[in-house]
Amino acid sequence: MDIWPLLLILVQILLIDLVLAGDNAIIIGLAVARLPHEQRRKAILAGIVGATVIRIVFALVAVKLLAIIGLTLAGGVLLLWVVWKTAREMRSNAAHDESVPPQTLKGAIWRIIIADISMSLDNVLGVAGAARGHPVLLAAGLVISIGLMGAAASFVARIMTRFPWLAWVGIAIVGYVAVNMIWHGWHEVAGHLKLG
């Protein structure tokens, strides 16, 4: 069996994942930036393991996912909730507001998984298309690229801890992604309703 076509497919999967995973690294960095240093790795690892499993499942049913009208809209709304919750915690942290509880390890892990579910649809569909029916290559590409994304998230978290104002830039970027998903999802739903 010729290995070169399979390696080419794996490279395509990695490139698609890396290009589309930048916003995911930002949200992971935001989610763990306020955790104690020793808990950051645990949160990133647990969040990425959960995200990897979810992405593999999504990718295996990618064709069926394409048929679900409103999925992008729902993902955008979910991501906007993550942005709102993160911004609320950051604002209360800056003001030392005691009414908002501090970030917890469990909360950070759930935020990573929820954000990844809502943001990974474009990524998963691109990767599933590149994999051309090779589930092992699909899983390998997702695992490698998500590991790289985790490393990027650690770097982003360190930078945001050092320069807290950058966290607001990150929130603005992820907020833009959420609004963009809602916009496109709404047009998709509206177009379907007109046709129906």
Structure overview:
With 196 residues, this protein is mainly alpha-helical. It has one domain (4-195). It has helices at residues 4-20, 22-32, 37-60, 62-66, 71-95, 105-119, 121-131, 135-162, 165-195. The protein is globular and about 55 Å long.
Tell me the layout of helices and strands:
Layout: H1 4-20, H2 22-32, H3 37-60, H4 62-66, H5 71-95, H6 105-119, H7 121-131, H8 135-162, H9 165-195
Number of helices: 9
Mean pLDDT: 75
Unreliable stretches covering 5 or more consecutive residues: none
Shape: globular
**Total domains:** 1
Extended strand count: 0
Oligomer: single chain
Radius of gyration: 18 Å
The computed structural class is mainly alpha
List keywords for this structure.
mainly alpha, 85% helix, globular, 9 helices, 196 residues
